[in-house]
Amino acid sequence: MSVKKPAHPTLAYSFGKRRGASVLLDRLFTGLVWGTGIIVILFIVGLLFLLLEKGLPQLSWNFLYGLPSEIEEGGGIGPALFNSFYVLIISLIVSIPIGIAAGIYLAEFAPNNKLIEVVRICVEGLSSVPSIIFGLFGIALFVEFFEIGLTILGAAISLAFLNLPVLTRVTEESIRAVPVELRNASFALGSTHLQTIRRVLLPVAMNGIMTGICLTAGRAFGESAVIILTAGVSTSGEMWDFNLLSPGGTLAVHLWYVQSEAIVPDAQEIAQKTTAVLIIVALLINIVFRVPLWLNERKNKA
Amino acid sequence: MQPFIEMNKLNLYYGEFHALKDVSVQIPERAITAFIGPSGCGKSTLLRTLNRMNDRIPGARVEGRVAIGGIDIYSGEVHVESLRKKIGMVFQQPNPFPKSIYDNVAFGPKQHGIRGKKKLDELVEQSLRSAVLWDEVKDDLRRPALSLSGGQQQRLCIARALAVEPDILLMDEATSALDPISTFKIEELTHELKDRYTIVMVTHNMQQAARVSQQTVFFLNGEVIEHDATRQLFANPVDSRTQDYISGRFG
Known about the structure:
The complex is a heterodimer.
Chain A: H1 21-55, H2 61-65, H3 78-109, H4 114-126, H5 131-145, H6 152-176, H7 180-188, H8 193-222, H9 225-231, H10 251-260, H11 267-300
Chain B: E1 3-14, E2 17-28, E3 32-36, H1 43-50, E4 60-68, E5 71-72, H2 80-86, E6 87-90, H3 101-111, H4 117-130, H5 134-137, H6 150-162, E7 168-172, H7 180-193, E8 198-202, H8 206-212, E9 215-220, E10 223-229, H9 230-235, H10 240-246
Parallel strand pairs in B: 3-8, 3-9, 6-7, 7-8
Antiparallel strand pairs in B: 1-2, 1-4, 4-5, 9-10
């Protein structure tokens, strides 16, 4: 939009015009950022659409609940879906307390010395180790040492190991990010260290910690390498099988299995539907963990 | 007046840095004592030795004696938590917790084991009234504390400190982040509180020290230069450095 110069002969004052490289660059940069943002959003939406397009309309309760079939059409994903949640929940039950405790230790109690520095570097390194390494570790521990075979328990604990470093780091960072003023306020009121951690540091850091838990839960839910190695590709073939020593093929593994090994005629279709389920559940996990935080934030933030 | 807080040859080191040098100050009960002096002179450090907040700073080392009510607070017999329960502190920046107004005030009492809604309700109301904030917030104590204005937040922090029923209130430049009207309200508030609490305040604002305090201590480079009744110190300073400082020649 161009503004016409008003003919004000009386106005001798002028702010001048700022032109030149800095203004141009600013416009260019703004355009670039907007453009990139729009492209990324379009890409994500498009990707979601492509992945959900074929599978989503065909989803049915029978498919979600049903037992898988090895030869005939119409098999479901019931046990695999159940295992996904079961393994996820057990791994979180193991990893969340340990990860948060380790994070609290590193943020609040660990002395500033070389040893702790090394520990920190190790934790950081471990959080980027390929997951298959944790799978191999799981085999060594559960299959070879404890000789319990391919089990849900082994998979869950191996997954917990996979997620521990990330949880530890995220917890440490989030607690360190709590403003020192709040810490001082709590101590000045005569709170003990434990009370300060429980009532001030953890609640304030919870947002960051929850982000970490969401990340690791999503990763655990979609993980396949660790599960294939420690829980196998098959399920016990029954619904609601809570036995920790059952084989524990999860949904992500099932997807891989159906795509590469299965001989059922509707493998393609099952894969599409499974993809849709995986994506929707991953989104749901995020929402489920986030909603309490949103509510809390609305209550406590200005 | 009977001294309530006594510091005797107090030395404090941050690592190699000698922050407080042979400080001996006596602070009377139920009065306002102001610490003045230029930045870095040790007045805030001294304030933090009174509730042992310096304990948390790595490398901080205290020598000498600090006694409150005749008890040496560094003797090892005093639990730091019970010490801080008796000594409220208000900081430079208002620092309410990201919780509701009610939960902020009830925080301290809860940590000290006070349970029961009725008792807590009473304490919250009483503390908010003492901090002259009750009328402004009584309609909705569930509001987030961070939705209050800066001055209200600071009075909330005072209420939060009063809720644990301390005897001493430490104010570390508690008005320096506030506008003049909020500052005035807090000064008025301290005036009312001084009949019930021993107040020690650190301030950069000499007019404030002159307006609200009964005793003033002037610090320079970690040393006490002059300590006298406020009126006396501002009207007839003995030391020429005090004279220079209060007349605005440096600092």
